[in-house]
Structure formats: structure tokens, C-alpha cells
Batch of 2 targets.
Target 1
Amino acid sequence: MAREGGQERRTSKKSERSDEEQLAPSEDVAERKERLDEDVDAILDEIDEVLEENAEDFVRSFVQKGGQ
Amino acid sequence: MSVRRVMGTEVEYGISVQGQPTANPMLASTQVVNAWANADLRARRARWDFEEESPLRDARGFELNRDVADSSLLTDEDLGLANVILTNGARLYVDHAHPEYSTPECTGPLDAVLWDKAGEQVMRRAAALASELPQSPAILLYKNNVDNKGASYGAHENYLMDRSTPFGEIVQHLIPFFVTRQAVCGAGRVGRRQDGSEAGFQISQRADYFEVEVGLETTLKRPLVNTRDEPHADPNKYRRLHVIIGDANLSEVSTFLKLGTTSLVLGMIEDRATLPELALERPVRELREVSYDATLRHLLTLKDGRRMTPVQVQWEYLEHARKHIEHTMGSDVDPETTDVLDRWGSVLDRLEADPMSCRQELDWVAKLSLLESYRDRDGLAWDHPKLQLVDLQYADVREERGLYHRLVRLGRMRRLVDDADVAAAVTDPPADTRAYFRGRCLAQYPEQVAAASWDSVIFDLPGRESLQRIPTLEPLRGTREHVGALLDRCDSAEELFAALTGP
């Protein structure tokens, strides 16, 4: 089946490449840290946009009956 | 030995009705399942066939008396709750107060990931359809296991095994494996104790809900090893190990490793291979202690006095699996088995060095990484509702709202399957198990399939008084290779039935 080979290899190669870019040896440690922080901030900004409003009420009202 | 065997997952989804915290969850679950059934006319008619179900049969060799069993265990009594068999061979139904999707029978962990992911699509679409009805509020579904107020619901696995393997050996070797595999396949949770009353993170969603080592129950006094003995197949040849200790995973790598590594341990037990002696002094307690230590440095105490970290225990199983495979297969190892061994080793290596390096692969690490980022940026304590919201919303099945799905979209989670294959798996069954026969019968003869189950398809044929049951007791028959051409050639269910039962 196609998915057993190609797709996975493509995906992991791509992510390896981006890891290498992030860890480029010429990059100064402080610069790298700064870039990672910016990166994390970008993720959190993105997540902030979709988080439900009023966390406390939302979490409190999530009540389930037990299952298996 | 290989990772390949007949297996599947059975996931109960958390459910809530937006703006109505007191809504009846059974009703909402029924609306979700019925919405799918109404939209997919082919799925509309067939009932579930309960004839071969035996939830009270215990793998240790006895049967629980029905009169003394807790009513939640009587899963074979048709309560008239919604129940749909899909053309991909899966079952979508209401179990207790949750919608549940059971994958069709798959022959390896990668296929199981694919049809498990197809289940997420089914749930997402079904919930959207149910919410489209006039005056219906939005129904939200979560692929998680806890509400942080005391309730837990399951994400089970099932593995077909050789019946001749003594159950005692399965129990002995599985317990240390199950107690420690959460380091790889835990889904992460904000909150400790069953009701979440203690603030903090833990690796597993389910660890707080297990109270005994072995048992038949699945809803109370949950056991590390469940003894439900419903093979849904020839009981003289097979047992179907019902695993209730896992978390519901979103990460494809987590699900792949959960199923693949468990299959390897079962393979070693079946082969009577040399297995490590890792009996734990207090396994139920250790399950919780492993879960509560996200540094993975907790030392488990073994019966022989040794103390090991969860990752060291996992390494023991991996090393033995590698040796056994080399010994029995040499270089003739299938690629899926090699992939499981390699990924398992890679993940264990990195979990030992720096767990955070697995943040793009494992659910609990991805979740913890996100939570720690929030704690850093906003200075939040572990009891802050926003962190609990991140935990909950990580599992939201909606692509636009679910945080796991956002991480995927941001290129932050590694994938193993692609979207086109998942979309196909929503409608198509696996080609290499009896799910193929079941799924194609439903797709091709929806009007004539009166009922179906894992081990039967029941036809209601024109001109016949009684229903006609085709047993499918052999999970590896009814494949495309066996019946594909026959199904291609039979335009009607009558023709198929005549061909199957004829002289």
C-alpha cells in the first residue's frame, strides 16, 4: 500500500530538514534561543485565537458520565 | 514474530452540548450516531447482531452470573440505542453515555492508525450533522478519557491471539509493560486524582482509574489486565485480548507505537520466547507514580528488589523483542515490524535524554510542551483553568478548534498517514480481513443486510421467510482476495447468498 512507504518518508525528511535549519551550527546560541522563543510565541498566538472564551466556565461545564 | 496480527481500537468520545451542561449525554450521543445513519443511507438499516457476544465470559475460564453482574457490563443487551455498521466495516454506536467508534479488524498497527483516524473523521462529521438539525445546539466531541471531575471513559484496544497461550503468562508479562508504556503512549492530563482535586500534570489520562491487577470489570474497579473473553471468532483457536488501560491518542505515532509495541510483547508471550523478569512489587500504585512524574525518573520497585525507571523497563522489552526477532526471522523482517522497533528505540533514547525532544511525536509531550509554554508566558499555576482548557481542547475533534489539529497544521506533529488515505478509510474497509466482506455487503446490498456483527452478516432476502446468517468466524477470511471477485460479479444479495451457500 502506498501509504506504508512514500508519504511517511517524505514527511520525516521534511521535518528533519527543518530541524537542521533550526540547529544550524553557525548560529549563535543566544540568537537561536531568541528565535525559538519567537517561534513559541507564534504558536501560542495561534492557539490563543481558537481557545474557548471563559476557560473557567467552559472547563467547569464539561461533565461526563463514566464509561468503560 | 511480527507486529502484524488482527487488531483494532474502540474509542468512547467525550460529549457535551454547547451551552447546556445538564443535557442528557445518552440522547446527545444517540443524535450523533443517528445523524450519521440518516446521512449515509447504506448504513441505515442493518442492526447489530448480538448472538455471539459474551461480555461476561472470563478468560480465566468461568462465566459471571448475569444476575450479579453490574448492569453496565451487560453490553450484549440491545437497549435500542443507536448502532450503525459502516461501509468501512467499523461500528459506530452509543455505549453507556458516549458515542463509540470501533475500527474494523486491521492486520497491523499502521492500518489500525488509519482506521482509528477515520473514526475521528466520522465523529467530526456526525457531530456536525447532528448540530445542523433545526434548533439543535452544537454537540462537541472530545477524543479523551476524563472530565477531571471523577468520570472516565475508555479507549480500548483488541488483539487477536492464539488460544493456546496460557492466560496467566499473558498477565504476568503484560503488567510491567502496561504500567510503563504510558511513557510512550500516554495522552497527558492536567489534574491528579480521579476528580482532578490535586493540581499538576500527569503523563496518562487513565492512570488514576485503575484499582486492581486483573479482572473482568471495565466500568468499576478497573483492572490493569482485563479478562473479558469475547473472541468474536472461533473460540477454540483464538482469544481476543481486550486492553482497557490505554489513553485515547490523537498523535499517530503514539497510536502506532501503542499498538505495535503491545503486539510485539504479545508475540513474545505466544512464542514462549525468553521474556524479562520484571514483576513489580505494587503495580497498581506504580501505574500512578509513573504517571505523576513527567521527568520519567520515578524508580519502580521490582519484586526481586531492583529499581528501574519506566524507560528502562521499556528498554528490557524492546531488547528482548529485537533478540527474538533476530533469532526467529533473521534478516527476513517485514518493514512494519522494523519501523516499530526503530521508532520505539528512538523514542526511548530521547525520552531518557530529554523527554521534550519527543514533542512532535508523542501526545503527552506535545501537550506538556504547550502547557509549559503557557506557564512561562503567562505565569500560570497548575490549577489555572486555562491550562485545564488546553488539556480539554487538545482533544476537540474539530479541525479548527482542536489544539492537536492546530499543531498538525502548524507542522508541529509528525504524521504517519496522509489525509487522502484517511478519507478513503472512512468509506472503504481494510482489504485483508473479514471487515472487507462486511463493508462491501453493506455498501452493495444495503437493503438486504438486516444485521451484522464482527462475526456475521445477516441477510433479509426477498422471497425467504427467515433471515439468512452468514457466519464470519475466521477474521482473515472474507478478504478482497477471497471474495472480491465474487462481490464484483454478484449484482444482488440473492446471487451472493446463492453463490456462498450453493453446492
Target 2
Amino acid sequence: MALAEASAPRPGLARPPLGILLALLWIALMLFLAVFGDFVAPQEFTAMDLMARLSPPFTEGHWLGTDELGRDVLSRLIASIRVSLIIAFGATLISAALGTTLGFLAAHFRGWVEQAVLMLADFQAAMPFLILALAVLAFFGNDLTLLVLLMGLYGWERYARIARGLAISAGAQGYASAVRQLGGTPRRVYLRHILPNIASTLIVSMTLVFPEVILLESGLSFLGLGVQPPMTSLGNMVGYGREYITRAPWILLSPAVVIVLTTLAVSSLGDWLRDRLDPTTR
Amino acid sequence: MLRFLAVRFGRALLTVALVVTFAFVVLRLSGDPATLILGPEVPPEAIRAFRESWGLDEPLWRQYFSYFGAIASGDLGNSMRDGRPALELVADRIPATLALTVPALLLKIGIGIPAGVYAAMHRGGPIDRTVMLVAVAGFTVPSFVLGLVLVMVFSVQLGWLPSGGRDTWLHAVLPIVTMGVGGAAILARFTRSAMIEVLGQPYIRTASAKGVPWGAVIRGHALPNAAIPTVTIVGFMVGSLIAGAVVVESVFSWPGVGRLLVVAVSNRDLAVVQTILLLVAATMVTANLIVDLLYGALDPRMRRGAGQGAH
């Protein structure tokens, strides 16, 4: 609390710092590649060119080099960005929706529902997610839908705690009880009135969870237990490139750089948004 | 105090029971291990015999309760691959994992906490900026990328250190550094913000206003209060002594529990995966329990408040 007092007065809608602008630029580039990747990629990401195996970067026609089967690293990188971002987006949305719903249910019903949600949240926070995910994934097989759903369990407990806490305090405020007394259904109160009021906090949490999901997915794929070939993801490429670390380090370097820059960009954006938007941070 | 302990202990047991349930549900309902282990071309009699010997054809609730019973008596089943007791198989790997994670933990604490405290006390200075920069990098660079970059530099380019395996103590250097650096960065970030928060409190101002020397204010007032959130993170790190090595052990082909887990998961070796899950849960729960006790020691309010709010 004392920190907020000590910091300079809010500069209103002043221009974001340079770092944040760069982060936004990078995120925009990634989104562009995720959406229009098929049109931008120089080649089909599975296309093999056996005459040009393991060519180094800046080779004519293969600007980031090729891998052991002569597949263009840049094209594979774009395809990987696409898959990794789709998984991370899908998972973040699922986890936010799930967590918020559970948080609202806990705030609305209190009693044993609340206790059960809190207990599950404690459990989720206490167990290393990678271990749980490893168990589930390998035993149910490797399916993209399942992977997204599983990643969608990551971080739900944070939204649930936030949504519960804020909904309880909103319920005590005038606007929520006013709608209730006008005859609004609980659903209307929560979705139309409380949700918009706590959305900024939830969005900030999403930007903070998103990079963790990217790291988690790439870790799983790196271990060979996430996205499966012929599909490719950033972690997959790193895992594959490890076999060629001495002869063709470029195979793993470019996806590694993308992972690092993307998590860095999204998490610094999240930190910046939190300082700016979130009224609950101290 | 006794009630506080009882509540905590009850919760710990509940968590373990939840993990057991989770393991059971996920691992037993997800598929048929018999066909997977034996392959599709095996005659049905062989499959039936296999299922019988593993108890896979009993009703699920029966399997569930006998599973609880078996765990209570210390029987965690045999590895489906080589028939050795899963517990034995996992226990064999624990020393190798601890040989990495314990030094890594010491490295995290030894670097992370002093760096965080120093950065908080010299906020905005060059050291603070460096610590924050490294801390952000430590969070955004995944351990497998860091590990591989270290391999590239120290094994491939310089040839100083081996890139994988476990023959000499030199093999442990890169994995330990890989784990330690990332963790130290996270710990430094937490310690720094805990310390900054504490330094802004009125009691710090009061203490220095009444003439207590600054060093004594830090030692007597700031550090003990900043210790509370820091202990939580350290507790989590202690809890992941077993689990924290999955990725790094795989990068460096280190024959520990994490590597075993990855292999067991790809082979659908149920008993081994279950054993590791339980082991991870048990370490996590024990570490949390210790953290709760430490809270009680560090913060007298916790002892009176009977356990609520210690998150």
C-alpha cells in the first residue's frame, strides 16, 4: 500500500514505455503469423528437400536453414508458432472461464461448495502441474484437443480465487444488490454486472498465466509427450533439434528464441497492465 | 497450537488422499494397459491372465479400495516392464535426483535470497536493475533451453564439461547450474518484493525514527517479516525436490526419478507412474507442513489464529 503512495502520480494515458511497445510489436507479429502463417510461410512445413539437408541459415531459399530431412526451418517455425499459440490461447480461455465460473459458484453458494472449490484450488496449487499433466497426457494418448483441455486446467485456481474474492466483495456493494432487488437472476447479476467490473483483474491474470502455459506446453512437447509429429510446436522443434545440437544448432535455436521472446513480451505486458489497470494490486 | 497442528495435518492427509484418487481415476480409466503392454496380436487368454494377475478385471470401486489398502500396507505394485516392485525401482533413482536437486536448492537459496534483499535495499541502483533483469530472464527462459545453451557453450564449444550422463561429479555441474539459476532468479524476485513491501511499513519508519541503527532495523524488523512470504517459496522448492528435475534430467540424460517418470509415462507403466505421483505428493505435503510449522514459529499471530489465512 505504501508503495502506491510513494510512486509518482499516474500519467493518465501517457505513451507506454519503449519496452512495452516492442513487446506489443512482437506479440502482433506472432499473432499475424499464427493467423496468416499459411500464406506467409515460404514452404509447406512438412516438405522435404533431401538435396539440401542440414543447410545452415542464410542459404538461398532457406533463410533459417534446414533440418535433417531438408525441411525448411522457417516454415516449420511458423507452423510451430501457430500450434503453440493456438494451444496457449485455447488453454488460457478455458482456464479463465472454468476458474471464474467456479469462483462465482463458490461466492454464490458459499457453504460446502465454497469449501470444495477452495480445497481443489489448494490441491491444484500444491501439486506440480507438470507431474499431473504428464500422468494424464501419456495415459490418455496424445491428442491435440486433449492437450488443449489439459492445459486449460493450468492456473484455473488463480482465477477461481480472484473471482470468488471479488464477487463476494461486489455482492456487498450497492450495484449488485440493486440489480438483485430489481429482480435480476443470479446469472444476470454475475455475468452482466459483476463480471464486467472484475474483468480487468481477470485479463491481467490471463496475461500472466499465458506465458506459463506456453512454457508448459513447450516443456511437454520437448519431452516428446505434448504435440506429436507430424504436427510441430515450438517445444517439439527444440526437442528434435537437440539431436543435432553439434551439427546443426540452428534447428533448436530459432524456436528457443521465439519461446523466450514471446514469454518475455507477454509477461512484461502483463506486469505493465497490472500496474496500470488492476485496482487490487498493492 | 495443538488445534492448528491438527487442522494442518488433516489437510495434508486429505491432499494425499486426493492425489491417490486422482492417480487411480486417471491411470485406471484411461485405457487398457493389458493390450498396450502385450501388444494387439497376443491371444486373448494371455490378455485375460495378465488382467487377472494385475487385478484389472475387478469392478472399479473394488480396485479403488484395494488400491488404498495396498498403499497403506506399502505395496505399490510391480513395474509392468520388468516386474520389479515399483517402489524399489523408484527408490533406486532417488539418490541420483537428490544429488542434483539438493545442491541446486542450496544454490537458489544462497544466491536468490541475498540478491533479493540487496536489491530491495538499494532499489533502483545498478545491482537492483541487474537482479531484476536476470530475474525476468530466469522466468522466461525455460530450463530445457537454458540447459541446451549451456551444453552448446560448455560442452560443444569449449569442451570443458560433459553434456550428459552420470559418471563423474563433473556431469552434475551443468544440470545443477541449469536448475539453480532459474530458481535463484524466481527467489530473488520474491524476496525483493517481500522486502520492499516490508521496508514501506510504518514500523520500519518508527524503528529508524526512534534511533535504532539501520543495520539493526534490517536484521531485527525487516528480515523476519520479509521471511514469511519467502519461506513459502522456499517450501515449494523443497517440495519439488523430486518433481523439479523432470525436464533437466531429460536434457542431461541423468538417471533420476524425473527421467524414470518420462520413460514410465511413455511406456504406460502404471505402477511406476503412480508411485512417483505419490512420492511427489508426499514430499510436497511434508514440505507444506514444515512451512506451516515455520509460519507458527515466525509469526505468533498464526498460532492464535488456528490456521486460517496461512496461504
